[in-house]
Design a protein that fits this description.
With about 475 residues, the protein is an alpha/beta fold. The protein is built from 21 helices and six strands. It has a six-stranded mixed β-sheet with strand order 1-6-5-2-3-4, sandwiched between helices.
Length: about 475
């Protein structure tokens, strides 16, 4: 086996065995919506070439993905439209199936007598349920490839990690071996699904109404835009990242999370570009800590903790402490609607909420403060968790991501954190307040910058 094969094979695993059909190899693309730097697509192509088969990429578009709004659909569909054109240039078919994968894929794969099904990895509940159902119903082999983590989630750790301090050494031990360049996709030598171009074009035309939303001016969707944004960050912003990233008044973060969330940008490509740049080690290390350790820790949490979005998923010390403080009087209690509109008594929090609605994003530092205040201003931790997840998933372009569930569980439930000194409502959960923010950055300047933008308009919750 050559180096290219080793790199691909070690990221793949078999979900179910079966009898290979005579038709094409199918890659059911889900989390990693890109053509380049995609190990799952490379694996599917390798299998197709070995067995002299056509190659088809399938995306299952469901109209009511939990938490997703027209902004998310718009961003995703634009990315998929670009992807379809590129796949065509590589002689690879592309189809959008407008039904839930666990229902439509067994029927579709039988119709085309598919050879093999390949998918990408996702630790979230809904994707795992779909895959379990698929694995039980398919007669062909079903493979999974982790192309979102640099170190496949099931390889780097076989358990839920306590925190970055336990995962980091495991990553460091093998990173040089896994953080490599990624092979090129080849022009596919075997013809496949000729109908796919026509079928898929009609789907994009039909769904065109999704494609103009308030967030459209904020960030360009698609793989090419993602690479441009990554290159811009590397050339202009990375050198100051370690100093600037915690100040919401400075545009010091990369802003790449929507691309990473939708898989339009490969985390490995980004980490490879950063690690090979000639910038000072401080800047590179600070960024790679977030991109690799923190991001892969979030996948680890969601993969090994079934209750990643519930109170039961918090560590025992945190549950006990929050339980002891359930009866504490809350000075302010807000409904979901109050929070959503950003009409609390605290102008910094309201600015955060308005910022989130207007831009589809909130600065990483403010995300922590924003979630912690929701714990303080709701009747119990379960309600706080529910409201924080609902708002984050609805308004963040990068929402519905393991990073989001883990970040919220960190803020409200002490996940990956330690116990702090006890105080009302929070118990031993780390506390944050506006005064602390004032010590870190110019809060008034931030509030003013948000007020200068248009008044917030909550998104339509359904498409
Ligand atoms: C309450 C709360 C909610 C959050 N919700 C989300 C969410 O919905 N989606 C999301 O992607 N991230 C979320 N995060 C994590 C983090 O805040 C964002 O990833 C980051 O702010 C995204 O901006 P950026 O791409 O400019 O980050 P940068 O600082 O430029 O970092 C680059 C990349 O590293 C990863 N990263 C950075 N910080 C973290 C972190 N703390 N945990 C895990 N990965 C990280 C992300 O993939 C990010 O895109 C949340 C954090 C908290 C505390």
């Amino acid at each position: 086996m050559n180096r290219r094969n080793i790199d691909i094979v070690r990221r793949a695993r078999i979900l179910s065995e079966g009898q290979r059909g005579k038709g094409p190899v199918v890659y059911w693309m889900s989390r990693d919506q890109r053509i380049f730097d995609n190990w799952a697509l490379l694996w599917a192509q390798q299998e197709a070439i070995i067995h002299q088969k056509g190659l088809l990429v399938v995306f299952c578009l469901i109209p009511d993905y939990p938490g997703a709004t027209s902004c998310h659909y718009s961003f995703m569909l634009k990315g998929l439209e670009e992807l379809r054109e590129k796949l065509n240039q590589f002689n690879i078919g592309f189809r959008i199936l407008e039904q839930s994968p666990e229902i439509i894929l067994p029927i579709f794969l039988r119709q085309i007598d598919a050879h093999l099904l390949v998918s990408d990895f996702d630790p979230l509940r809904i994707k795992r349920r779909w895959k379990k159902q698929l694995a039980a119903n398919l007669t062909i082999p079903f493979h999974e490839v982790d192309t979102h983590n640099i170190l496949p989630a099931w390889i780097i750790s076989d358990k839920k990690e306590y925190g970055a301090y336990t995962l980091r050494p495991k990553i460091k031990r093998v990173l040089v071996d896994y953080l490599t360049d990624i092979p090129n996709l080849q022009h596919h030598p075997v013809d496949g699904d000729k109908d796919s171009i026509v079928v898929t074009q009609s789907c994009f035309t039909k769904n065109r109404t999704y494609q103009t939303t308030a967030m459209d001016n904020q960030i360009q969707a698609g793989e090419s835009a993602a690479m441009l944004a990554a290159t811009h960050f590397l050339n202009h912003k990375l050198k100051n990242y370690h100093d600037a990233r915690n100040n919401p008044c400075i545009d010091g973060q990369s802003g790449l999370s929507p691309y990473l969330h939708f898989g339009q940008l490969s985390p490995q490509r980004l980490a490879w570009m950063v690690s090979r740049s000639e910038l000072p080690a401080d800047a590179k290390e600070a960024f790679l800590e977030e991109l690799i350790v923190r991001r892969e820790l979030a996948d680890n949490f969601c993969y090994y903790e079934p209750a990643y979005d519930q109170f039961e998923g918090f560590p025992e010390w945190a549950r006990k402490s929050l339980d002891q403080h359930r009866i504490d009087k809350r000075e302010y209690v807000y409904s979901l609607a109050d929070l959503e509109k950003g009409t609390t008594h605290e102008s910094l929090w309201n600015a955060c909420q308005h910022d989130l609605i207007q831009r589809g994003k909130l600065h990483g530092f403010l995300r922590m403060y924003w979630a912690k205040k929701i714990l303080e201003w709701t009747p119990d931790p379960e309600t706080a968790l529910d409201y924080a997840i609902t708002l984050n998933d609805r308004y963040s372009l990068d929402g519905r991501d393991p990073n989001g569930y883990t970040g919220i569980a960190w803020s409200i439930g002490g996940v990956h954190d330690r116990a702090w000194s006890e105080r009302p409502v929070f118990g031993k959960i780390r506390y944050m307040n506006e005064r602390g923010c004032r010590r870190k950055f110019d809060v008034d300047c931030y509030i003013k910058s948000v007020q200068c933008k248009n008044a917030p308009e909550p998104h339509n919750q359904s498409r």
